[in-house]
């Protein structure tokens, strides 16, 4: 990209607080972007070839949304954790194996997307994020869900298309977890904690594509309770005129 084109984008961003430069083949975080560190609210550099997010990212004090989907990131700087107003972080389709130690300091974070990376476990730093609503960890290399998950505050957790064969029973203690997606993993039915069905807040459980038949799940104690929670969600949706946060489907079983 030429300097004149980048300059035009910077001028627009200065006026709008939004910098979007996707699919331009950038190999690094634009150095000139730090001139706008004090007023940018949104940065989208998706679908480039960025390998390194420089420590300068920590200077973007009012940044609320950062998207770096489909780049070549292998690590994130600790300075990222200084972004106290960041509420949306999209990092799908990179090569990340871990998160910074201080990731739990992103106190405003509500939405985190890390699909299509190389994570091998659920990052325990996420359990410190008190306002986290949605976490997407699908298409990684996660093999188990640890005990620490009980502190997770998320409403929706997507673990589809991993290599999960073990799940801690503590997941049933997650105080706000309503939607748990575990499709296309390596779970035996005996490894799925029954307390998810009988003693949790979860009302949507997606487990297709594992090492058991769905009809066997319907025979377990607690299935009826989960189905009633699902139907209650449908009725609530109808009373609200169709507005919803969770994607319930009228009359559809939780598992199919």
UniProtKB/TrEMBL annotation:
Residue spans crossing the bilayer: none
GO cellular component, one term: cytoplasm
Record keyword Repeat present: yes
The organism's place on the tree of life at top rank: Eukaryota
Disease resistance R13L4/SHOC-2-like LRR domain boundaries: 57-154
InterPro entries: Leu-rich_rpt_typical-subtyp, LRR_dom_sf, LRR_domain-containing, LRR_R13L4/SHOC2-like
Keywords: Leucine-rich repeat, Repeat
UniProt signal peptide: none
PANTHER family, A to Z: LEUCINE-RICH REPEAT-CONTAINING PROTEIN 57, PTHR48051
Protein name as catalogued: Leucine-rich repeat-containing protein 57
């Amino acid at each position: 990209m030429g300097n004149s084109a980048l300059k035009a984008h910077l001028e627009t961003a200065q006026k709008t607080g939004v910098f979007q430069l996707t699919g331009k083949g950038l190999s690094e975080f634009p150095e000139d972007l730090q001139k706008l560190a004090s007023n940018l609210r949104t940065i989208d550099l998706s679908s480039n070839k960025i390998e390194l997010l420089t420590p300068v990212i920590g200077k973007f004090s009012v940044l609320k949304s950062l998207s770096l989907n489909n780049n070549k990131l292998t690590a994130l700087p600790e300075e990222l954790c200084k972004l106290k107003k960041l509420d949306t972080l999209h990092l799908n389709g990179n090569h990340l194996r871990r998160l910074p130690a201080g990731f739990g300091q992103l106190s405003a974070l509500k939405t985190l997307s890390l699909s299509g990376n190389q994570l091998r476990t659920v990052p325990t730093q996420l359990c410190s994020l008190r306002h986290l609503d949605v976490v997407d960890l699908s298409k990684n290399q996660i093999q188990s869900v640890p005990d620490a998950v009980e502190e997770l505050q998320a409403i929706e957790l997507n673990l589809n298309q991993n290599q999960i064969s073990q799940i801690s029973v503590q997941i049933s203690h997650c105080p706000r977890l309503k939607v748990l997606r575990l499709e296309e993993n390596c779970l035996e039915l005996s490894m799925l904690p029954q307390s998810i069905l009988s003693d949790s807040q979860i009302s949507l459980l997606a487990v297709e594509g594992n090492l058991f038949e769905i009809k066997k799940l319907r025979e377990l104690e607690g299935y009826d309770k989960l189905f009633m929670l699902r139907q209650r969600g449908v009725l609530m949706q109808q009373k609200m005129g169709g507005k919803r946060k969770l994607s319930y489907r009228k009359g559809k079983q939780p598992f199919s």
